[in-house]
Amino acid sequence: DPIYFTGLASEPGAKSMTVSIWGYRETLISQYWASFTVDFKDLLTRNCEDGDYTKWLAHSTNTGDSTDGCMLGYKEQFLRLRKSSVCRNGRDYVITKQPAPCPCSLEDFLCDFGYYRPENKSECVEQPEISGILEFCFNGTQEQLQTTGYRKIPGDMCEGGILLPRKIIDLKKKCNNSSSLVNPPLDVPQSHQSVPTSPHSIVIFVTIIAILLVIIILGVLLVKKYVCGGRFLVHRYSVLQQNVEASGVDTEEKLESSAFSSSKPMYHDDSDEDLLE
Question: Distance (Å, rounded) from C-alpha 64 to C-alpha 56?
Fold first, then answer.
């Protein structure tokens, strides 16, 4: 029965003759998975010979060019099976490759400091704002750069071809304040270098801390006065109100009756005025 193919399992670099495939089958009411293992031992019965291989150049795009297949100044040529060869390599087969360096070309170089590549061009030209002798400060010493505008790409392994000299001369002089480029020492990480602090910044920092402390103290005093004190008074009033309501006596009537029945002298705001009249 046919299956719907979904995957194939073959270990990269493995020399086994078996391959596993899996998929699923459909019925009228359900679907179910199916897996099969194919053994090519009975099909590939002959070991490969020299005539079954052909040379293949990796990254090849133009066989007539001497730099064809070059990648970072390096190219590799392999032996691989012909499409028409029906044979097996065997477990003792070792991949054969022929590495070779490429001649240097402009593609193996980057534009040096003070130079750039115009659009759709391979040549590096000098920047208009930088001309003449290039001197810069590096690690506290002044150096001079003598270049034709190119520097080799790191890791490029080309040999011969175009020769583009480049030299850095140590002028044996310490940098002054007018240096255009000043780099920190390489042995000290950028994050560990000390940053000078001015007295003005210290005063600002202390002022901010003092303002924050004053705000915190005022906040604590306000909370104690209006929040905590208010809760205590509300609690006392609420307890008194519950006791009055439980006795079944109206609060205003109880206060008026207690005021008239009391034998103690009472104070009125207009008592002094009555005596004067």
Answer: 14
Q: Can you list the alpha helix ranges (DSSP code H) found in the chain?
A: 199-222, 229-247, 251-261, 271-276
Cβ distance 7 to 21 under 8 Å? yes
103 touches 67 (CB < 8 A):
yes
Q: Please state the rounded mean pLDDT for residues 214-237.
A: 72
Question: At residue 142, what are phi and psi to the nearest 5 degrees?
Answer: -90, 135
What pLDDT is recorded for position 50? 86
Mean pLDDT of all residues belonging to the chain: 75
DSSP 228: I
Which residue has tokens 């007018």? 178
Alpha carbons 169 and 146: distance in angstroms, whole number: 8
Residue 242 tokens read as: 């519950």
Give the per-residue pLDDT at 244: 59
DSSP-derived 3-state class of residue 208: helix
Q: Say if residues 153 and 110 touch (Cβ distance below 8 Å).
A: yes
Q: What is the pLDDT of residues 22-36, one digit of tens each?
A: 999 888 888 889 988
Exposed (0-12), middle (13-18) or buried (19+): which is 53, by Cβ within 10 Å?
Answer: middle
Task: Tell me the mean pLDDT in the region 243-261.
Answer: 54
Q: DSSP state, 216?
A: H
Q: Which residues pair with 55 in a beta bridge?
A: 79
